[in-house]
């Protein structure tokens, strides 16, 4: 199954030095590398924007942008935003406030049959109320 990669996982790969990662974070980073090698990575524009938004160094920004462009992008349609809003409303009805990008990730993953690869624990809460599949590192 292909995986939609959340900003939290990309951050481990691009923003954090390997020596500063704990064993679980290293496992997540290694899993991302395997998914890349297997060409199972999918991205959406809002995740790229989140990742790039905190990069101050222009050369690092350009390097990350070139890398992100090489992955298969899931094109977004107006229906994805509607589905994301529905997911947000479902979560709110259960007392969970999901941010808009997270809800869009859920919508795209559900509608495209993708798993979500994330280190963000919020997705664990979301998965109790919306039918997302979370990618578990091997």
Give an overview of the whole structure.
The protein is an alpha/beta fold and 138 residues long. It has a domain of 94 residues: Rossmann fold (3-Layer(aba) Sandwich), CATH 3.40.50. 57% of the residues lie in helices and 9% in strands. Strand 4, helix 7 and strand 5 form a beta-alpha-beta unit. Helix 1 packs across helix 2 and helix 5 packs across helix 6. It is globular, with a radius of gyration of 15 Å. The two termini are 13 Å apart.
Q: How much helical structure, as a percent, in the residues?
A: 55-70%
Q: Quickly give the structural class.
A: alpha/beta
Describe the main β-sheet briefly.
5 strands, parallel
CATH architecture annotation name of the domain at 3-75 and 114-134: 3-Layer(aba) Sandwich
Q: TL;DR of this structure?
A:
By secondary structure, the chain is an alpha/beta fold. It has helices at residues 7-14, 23-37, 45-53, 58-69, 78-93, 100-112, 122-126; strands at residues 3-5, 41-43, 72-73, 115-117, 133-134.
Tell me the layout of helices and strands.
Blueprint (H helix, E strand, L loop, with lengths): L2 E3 L1 H8 L8 H15 L3 E3 L1 H9 L4 H12 L2 E2 L4 H16 L6 H13 L2 E3 L4 H5 L6 E2 L4
Keywords:
138 residues; alpha/beta; 5 strands; five-stranded parallel beta sheet; 7 helices; 57% helix; Rossmann fold
